[in-house]
Amino acid sequence: MSKKKVLVVGGTGYLGQHILQGYAEIHGSPYDLAFTHQSSPPPQALLDAIPHSFAFHVDLKTGEGFEAISNSFGQPDVVVNCAAISVPRICEVDPAAAFAINVPSSLVEWLSSFRKSTTLLIHLSTDQVYEGEKSFYKEDDETDPVNVYGKSKIAAEQFISEKYSNFAILRSSIIFGPQTISPVPKSLPIQWIDSALAKGKKMDFFHDEYRCPVFVKDVVAIILALTNKWISDNKPMQLLLNVGGPERVSRAQMAEVVAHIRGYDASLINIVSALSVDRGVKSPSDISMDITKLVQTLNISPIPYKDGVKLTLDAEAKC
Ligand SMILES: NC(=O)c1ccc[n+]([C@@H]2O[C@H](COP(=O)([O-])OP(=O)(O)OC[C@H]3O[C@@H](n4cnc5c(N)ncnc54)[C@H](OP(=O)(O)O)[C@@H]3O)[C@@H](O)[C@H]2O)c1
């Protein structure tokens, strides 16, 4: 039997590389893997770590590159879309680019062009679609994003659910974990807190901004489970899931856990209000999420924040 084909769009990014690694590590290598890159050639370290994978240059703004995938890789059974302008501050300064990339219209049009609609699209969205005025949002709560990033992501969700019939949209909280095979340029949350506190100087952390940070390997496990569900059941899905860790933690609590594990002086954590700092972009206050639907649908329970931080810092120590 021929292998199923998986395409990771945005495979060079933080989550994309972890996902490729997750698929590649499955016993018996049941998938043919391909990924896309955009700003630079695919990193050699990634190509070496994911042997026999195909790399394609794709620009979501124009759709350039998808035809080459049809010609040499063929129609994928599963596409995981991780491509985005994922930094809210950057979206805020160029809303047109944020919408052109974050709403994957060229990808959906390409998938719709195949005669058989047999591709599952797993699309990464964000907790920032919620306004942030209450705790533990559920999937059917109203969305009202406060920044361009969130607005582009909700536009993407609407586009996919109107134009495509086999999808899983994952509204993810902050994803944290070890660095990638080929290090990504953006700063990673735990590593950033760790290096800031390691300097021994007081740093500001917010007591009034709440998230449900999720360990990257849990996000990978969710994506592998969705892949498996589609391949084994062969029933198209229209699924919307909150993806977060099990706890609601403030930015200050996130830092306290890192300080505790590393043995840093907790008084280095200067607790302030998010309102005291201008970050050039509005950030929702409390977008903690209820993840009951995720746990019930896929039977996956993301690990507690503290355990994920330990695993992250242990992995960094080994590098
Ligand atoms: N990381 C988080 O904490 C987090 C939290 C919630 C939701 N998410 C969502 O999860 C997804 C993955 O996040 P991430 O942190 O892995 O993002 P990331 O590290 O910023 O990676 C973004 C990816 O998008 C690609 N890309 C950028 N512009 C593109 C374009 N015009 N055409 C095609 N590809 C393009 C990049 O390619 P190059 O590398 O070649 O530039 C890269 O592979 C995003 O949708 C993000 O919004 C992430």
TrEMBL record:
Stretches assigned to the RmlD-like substrate binding domain: 5-315
Top-level taxon in the UniProt lineage: Eukaryota
Gene3D superfamilies noted in UniProt: NAD(P)-binding Rossmann-like Domain (3.40.50.720)
Pfam families: RmlD_sub_bind
CDD domains recorded: dTDP_HR_like_SDR_e (cd05254)
Record-linked PANTHER family: NAD(P)-BINDING ROSSMANN-FOLD SUPERFAMILY PROTEIN
Protein name listed in UniProt: Methionine adenosyltransferase 2 subunit beta like
Organism of origin: Quillaja saponaria (Soap bark tree)
